[in-house]
TrEMBL record:
Protein name: Beta-lactamase family protein
Span of domain Beta-lactamase-related: 43-380
Keyword Signal: yes
Entry-linked InterPro entries: AmpC-like (IPR050491), Beta-lactam-related (IPR001466), Beta-lactam/transpept-like (IPR012338)
SUPFAM superfamilies named in the record: beta-lactamase/transpeptidase-like
UniProt organism field: Streptomyces roseirectus
Amino acid sequence: MRKRLVKTFAALCTAVLCGSVAVGAPAQAGQQKGKLSQRELREEVERTLARAGLVGMSVEVRDGGKRIRARAGEAVLGTGMPVPYGASFRADSVTKPFVATVVLQLAAEGRLSLDDTVEKWLPGVVQGNGNDGRRITLRHLLQHTSGIHNYDYTDDVGYTAEAFEKHRYDHLSPEQIVAGAMRSAPDFPPADPDDPAPRWNYTNPGYILAGMVIQKVTGRTWAQEVHDRIVEPLGLTHTYAPGDDPVLPAPHARNYHRFPGSTAWTDTTERNMSWAGAAGELISGKRDVDKFFTALLTGRLLPPAQLAQMRHAVPVGPDFDAVFPGLHYGLGLMRQPLTCGGYRWGHGGDGDGDFVRTGFTADGRRSVVITASGKTSQEDQLLRVEALFQKLTDTALCEGTR
């Protein structure tokens, strides 16, 4: 039960701009506190690292055309080597908005509809144990309202340091991940499209299915479509799907995870990410992530109608709202109130040993991208880390830079 609770919490953190700090009612939009200096950001990052018990972290903040950045901790444990600027990192679930954007582009082109069922495109794939692809739409998949169980490969091989070492190079196909999910009954029935507060639960297999649909519609993999439709047009130089290549390209910080039952850090940097697929396989960099979300939010990647559908966010429900107040999920895009008014948008990602957090103002003018290493499986650390990340993100977006 404890493993399931930790994994459920971590799964939501994978999706969101996480934070356990209560966010009060938004003030008047545009209200600002002050301006964040390079020195103040560095001090805040150093405090965050110390309080969160992380190995290393790096933050980049943009206000219009002005950028400041800071780092703390180590890139390689025990060496004192600083976390490199311009580093590559595993984007994890920041992959999801890339995939959702491709699906919405295909909808804009009339090649599919968000109201198409999974069964239409992938007949016979979602069935058994109460799962029914005839009732699940592409919109359900992108919004995590399908009810499909959030199967994880560790459900079968175990979630320990030993299991990780044994299986870190395993290849898993999308079909294997979906079949794993089908062994469980749905968490709930697919949401009514007119329900303003549907049942919601984060599910990676839903995005694996979305990637499979992209391939069925286009005849090309989701990764090829992401590259040709997003990566190449925007000039993203660090963003790609590695497939079975387990290596993170230099420069990069190493990732460290403390698995349940272990007191030592496991270096999790090198691993096969095929299991994550369209739910979390991408590798990227901070400038790429900033370019992507800024282009997305300012209408460069989607027509107005599709961007509006992507921004149409539903509450994540009372179970999660108690920890993440005000959090809403659109189609691969998160929304959460800022203390200075308005909202922050974006998506985050988590892997074994690493964190990625993003935040963008609605107009794309301000942004913050956080990467960090040194994760444990303890709830208290996860809560502490997310509270600190949320505070840092809120400060960056509300204060801007000077």
